[in-house]
Design brief:
The protein is of the alpha/beta class. The protein contains 15 helices and 16 strands. Strands 7-8-9-10-11-12-13-14 form an 8-stranded parallel β-sheet. Strands 1-4-5 form a 3-stranded antiparallel β-sheet. The longest helix is centred in the N-terminal third of the chain and has 19 residues. Bound molecules: [(2S)-5-oxo-2,5-dihydrofuran-2-yl]acetic acid and manganese (II) ion. Pathway: Aromatic compound metabolism.
């Protein structure tokens, strides 16, 4: 028996975007302020055959990390992106992205959530894991970093000791840049001394320093044992990033985060030898396919990749894990620990962490089951919460 081609087309019937508010297990302090809750936008997308899928776009501190906020993401989806893709063939992922680009410039976080939901829905409908639709798995697990960001050296050391004892994490990322750089050097050195030889350390400055400050203080951090330096200077300051990459001691690598979003950003950084590693994040790249496009540039340019997070729930973390599972090239581990930083999650069972590594998920779609009652419980509209504001605390004014 033959079926007509149109009968097998899976059309997008409906899309719903809602903002959830989920507290973090402790205040999480970054260079631009502290957060105590995450406000992910969760998208559900239904297909003509009744299957549905989920996607997520999480920001950090509303629009503090970049231009998009939970409110702008939901607005872009409801008003522009959903109308652009409803009725379309859900399986033509590239075409969906092109239609969203025509309807709406930028807004990559919002597009990423819609694209994830379409891919999850199609994969579920076909009974396949997403990694299979993306070219096939190349790895089963990735070592998983944890971020120490309580703002207090003693508390951070205690937290790191617990993670080591539980065999959960032995790679720690320290959030710095809110205090005077000398204080940050002392903080990093205290933690490095306490963990000496038992863990590796990254610092993430989240754009807080100018080039001169980075050139002055990063060598001291490298001396203390830091091996990976993430986004020490402003997103626009590629020249300073290039100088650091060329001149810092070779025991440390320079990683771009906020600076590398589009494949064109990746090409520019590659052409100028402006970093050693890209932090890949499905939200800032605009989805899973464009994450692969950025990873392709990394590989062609002899640049490594790191599996980054926007502190998503298990939905966005599993979506990221599926695409990371398909990537070749040199990797520098991952940090998909969002589910563990939140007090609760929206899925039945989280991805497995064992032996310091995240076991990459399997099963149809993203391989997780979302619990509708949990979506309802954390729904902002039901909780009656207002937009999240980052606690500016001691953070000084940052360059725009
Ligand atoms: O990397 C960032 O800039 C954002 C995020 C990722 C981990 C974390 O602690 O914060
Ligand atoms: Mn970062």
């Amino acid at each position: 028996m033959t079926t007509s081609p149109s009968a097998s087309v899976l059309r997008i019937e409906r899309i719903q975007a809602r903002i959830l508010d989920i507290p973090t297990i402790r205040p999480h302090k970054l260079s631009f302020g502290a957060i105590q809750r995450q406000s992910p936008v969760i998208v559900q997308l239904w297909l003509s055959d009744g299957a549905s899928g989920f996607g997520e776009a999480a920001t950090i501190g509303g629009p503090s990390w970049n231009e998009e906020s939970p409110e702008s993401i939901r607005h872009a989806i409801d008003s522009y992106l959903a109308p652009a893709v409803i009725g379309q063939d859900a399986g033509r992922f590239e075409q969906l992205l092109q239609r969203m680009d025509l309807a709406c410039k930028g807004n990559r976080f919002a597009k990423s959530a819609v694209e994830q939901a379409a891919i999850d829905a199609v994969a579920r409908s076909l009974g396949l894991p997403v990694w299979q639709l993306l070219g096939g798995k190349q790895r089963e697990s990735l070592p998983l970093a944890w971020t120490l960001a309580s703002g207090d050296s003693a508390k951070d050391i205690e937290e790191a000791e617990k993670m080591l004892a539980a065999r959960r994490h032995r790679i720690f990322k320290l959030k710095i840049g809110a205090r005077a750089p000398q204080e940050d050097v002392a903080h990093v050195a205290r933690i490095a001394r306490a963990l000496d030889g038992r863990a590796s350390m990254t610092v993430d400055v989240n754009q807080a320093w100018d080039g001169a400050t980075a050139r002055r203080y990063l060598p001291e951090m490298i001396d203390a044992g830091v091996g990976l330096i993430e986004q020490p200077v402003a997103q626009w300051n590629e020249e300073a990033l290039r100088q650091l990459t060329a001149t810092l001691p070779h025991t440390a690598l320079v990683m771009a985060d906020e600076t590398v979003c589009t494949p064109q950003d990746a090409m520019r950084l590659a052409r100028h030898n402006a970093c050693h590693v890209f932090s890949l994040k499905i939200a800032k790249h605009g989805g899973l396919l464009r994450t692969r496009a950025v990873a392709d540039v990394a590989r062609a340019a002899d640049i490594g990749w790191y599996g980054g997070t926007m502190l998503e729930t298990s939905v966005g973390s599993a979506a990221s894990a599926h695409v990371f599972a398909t990537l070749g090239g040199t990797h520098h581990n991952c940090e998909l620990f969002g589910p563990q930083l939140l007090v609760d999650d929206i899925v039945e069972q989280q991805m497995v962490l064992s032996d310091f590594a995240l076991q990459l998920p399997d099963g149809p779609g993203f391989g997780l089951t979302v619990v509708p009652e949990r979506l309802d419980r954390f729904d902002r509209a039901r909780q009656g919460l207002t937009p999240v504001h980052v606690d500016l605390g001691r953070a000084s004014a940052q360059p725009a």
